[in-house]
Design brief:
heterodimer; A: 456 residues; Alpha-Beta Plaits; 6-stranded antiparallel β-sheet; B: 115 residues; alpha+beta; two-stranded antiparallel sheet; AtuA-like ferredoxin-fold domain-containing protein (chain B); AtuA-like_ferredoxin_dom (chain B)
Chain lengths: 456, 115
């Protein structure tokens, strides 16, 4: 294989629900070697497991299939390869749906599937073999809540993605893996990096972290938003990577948004823990090690990233049934909006209490949206004098019937509370299941990854 | 000396981290970073977020990025889908820290180029 000097990798999807215009425009508006797409959040896996339970052919990101139907012919023509964690908890079903699209457009495309992350079916044997799956935050063993577990997935690394590309895949579908791995995988494949190239693996991880939330590094969700041009047509991010691990963050020419040292550092700070020890299955990256330089013209260069050897464990993300919740809201107009909303909230709790339903302090929520809910406790002038507020009430707890009962005392306020209450079009709020989250570790050699390649 | 908002010398980004949030504060100059290393202690930040965060605060430094990263231990009203709050992901905590009023020396204010 002849190696490229420079590889262009973009991310067109920061989460399941991100705009389809990101990836559509990335394919159309400039050069690209790889398009990565990140669909999975922690809660997503549990939702997908539920969908798969109802229909064995579901449980993946259906958005991905619709996107491919729109972009695949042009992506193939331009030689852009696609790497997506769209497989969710059913990557094989996702592959089948993708192959349908490939056939529909009459394309010659190889589709690879990475499996092995889904350990839900092996949990008991793994526990029997001595894995306690202790909660990383609380230290409690999984056995306490084992029955409620609804999904269990290992965060796989980037090497299986590279292996799929080595086998000639044009599209790689994975289940749960690390988000930065979607970018690091193609770099390992293109530059022939190995497990020993720790600084390069760390560099690819930093690049992946910058890209993983889409337009959050090109001027989206940016403090100095007044200086971001053409936000409607914001460009999704691209890295231009070199074999030594140096890379430049940029976006296609003529697109909206900005790439500056500050927009990139914003994203580097996102969901950060200890910056000196960013742990992935491939490497421990040191985010305090590199140099970051603004070259102007929407180009930011990062060099000198250092990495150290990976840990012997994978991170496991489990979700579980964790009770019920219900939240509803009504709009209260002025005059005296806040005082009336406070009275309305009291009325709801008193009526529920009269009927025998009392909720503990930590099982209920009262918010007056418009009167400084987001920055509670921080002194903001006139925050207590809104011209109108949204009264937002909620309860949670283990008893579904008790949680559901709350929902029927909100709407009556419109006719039996203070005046000027409206916005009840949604009807009674319903009880929804709370999905709990259980982070744990698993010895790496107990996980077997598989890569398979298919064509239409 | 009149107090100045942190926003004059820094920007910020926040997001969820388990049952808490992280708040990255990005100083706009080296002088601003050095000032913030002294001024933005864990105690100062914990006091600022007392209406939001019900746990501890841990600080990490990344001088190469001019970032001080704060972990607010219990700021989401329960993690993930267990939270009833409007801002269950801590998306707005970055802007919240930028509202902090500080005694910022004139040379630090002067060191910050207009963005």
């Amino acid at each position: 294989m002849t190696r490229k000097d420079k590889v262009l990798i973009a991310n067109g999807q920061g989460f399941w629900g991100d705009s389809i215009l990101g990836p559509v425009r990335l394919i159309q508006e400039g050069p690209l070697d790889y398009l990565t797409l990140d669909y999975l959040a922690e809660v997503t896996m549990s939702i997908m497991q539920k969908l798969k339970g109802r229909d064995p052919s579901m449980g993946y990101a259906t958005d991905f299939v619709q996107l491919l139907d729109r972009i695949l012919p042009e992506a193939v023509e331009k030689g852009v390869k696609i790497v997506a964690n769209a497989g969710g908890v059913n990557p094989m079903a996702c592959k089948d749906a993708v192959l349908e699209v490939v056939r529909k457009h009459g394309l010659n495309v190889k589709v690879a599937v990475v499996e092995g992350d889904d350990i839900l079916g092996h949990l008991d044997e793994l526990m029997a073999s001595g894995e306690a799956f202790k909660n990383m935050d609380t230290g409690e063993p999984l056995s306490k809540v084992r029955d409620g577990v609804t999904s269990a997935n290992v965060y796989l690394g980037a090497f299986p993605i590279a292996e799929a590309l080595d086998q000639g895949a044009d599209i790689v579908i994975t289940g749960r893996g690390t988000d930065p791995g979607l970018v690091l995988g193609p770099l390992i494949h293109e530059f022939g990096w190995t497990e020993k190239d720790l600084d390069q693996l760390a560099a690819g991880t930093v690049a992946g972290h910058i890209l993983e939330c889409g337009a959050q590094c090109t001027g989206g969700n940016y403090t100095d938003w007044q200086n971001i041009p053409k936000m409607a047509m914001i460009g999704y991010p691209i890295v231009e990577a070199l074999a030594d691990g140096t890379f430049t963050v940029t976006k296609h020419e003529g697109t909206g948004g900005r790439v500056t040292r500050d927009t990139v550092v914003h994203q580097l700070s996102y969901e950060m823990g200890d910056p000196a020890n960013y742990i992935t299955p491939d490497v421990v990256a040191d985010f305090t090690s590199f140099e970051i330089e603004d070259e102007g013209n929407d180009r930011v260069r990062i060099s000198g990233v250092k990495g150290t050897e990976a840990t012997p464990t994978y991170k496991v993300s489990m979700s579980m049934r964790d009770g019920w919740k219900s939240v509803g809201s009504l709009t209260v107009s002025g005059p005296d909006a806040l005082a009336k909303a406070k009275l309305a909230a009291e009325i709801v709790w008193q009526r529920l209490s009269y009927d025998g339903f009392d909720y503990a302090e930590d099982e209920r929520l009262v918010e007056f949206v418009g009167a400084n809910v987001c920055h509670e406790g921080i002194d903001i002038p006139n925050a207590d004098q809104p011209t109108e507020v949204v009264l937002r009430l909620g309860v949670k707890g283990p008893d579904k019937a008790k949680v559901a009962r709350f929902g029927s005392e909100l709407v009556p306020l419109v006719t039996s509370g203070p005046p000027g209450i409206t916005g009840f079009a949604g009807g009674r709020p319903k009880a929804a299941e709370i999905i709990g989250y259980w982070p744990a570790l698993l010895t790496k050699d107990k996980v077997k990854t598989r890569v398979s390649v298919f064509s239409a | 000396m009149p107090k100045t908002e942190l926003k004059a010398i820094a920007s910020a980004r926040s997001g969820d981290k388990g049952e808490g949030s992280n708040v990255g504060v990005i100083a706009h100059s080296e002088a601003a970073y050095r000032f913030l290393v002294e001024a933005l202690t864990e105690d100062v930040v914990r006091e600022h977020f007392k209406g939001i965060n019900h746990g501890g605060v841990e600080r990490f430094e990344a001088p190469n990025m001019r970032v001080l990263n704060f972990l607010l231990e219990d700021s989401l009203g329960g993690g993930g889908s267990a939270s009833l709050k409007t801002d269950a992901q801590g998306k707005t905590h970055g802007l919240a820290i930028l509202r902090m009023q500080l005694d910022i020396p004139q040379d630090v204010l002067d060191s910050v180029r207009p963005a």
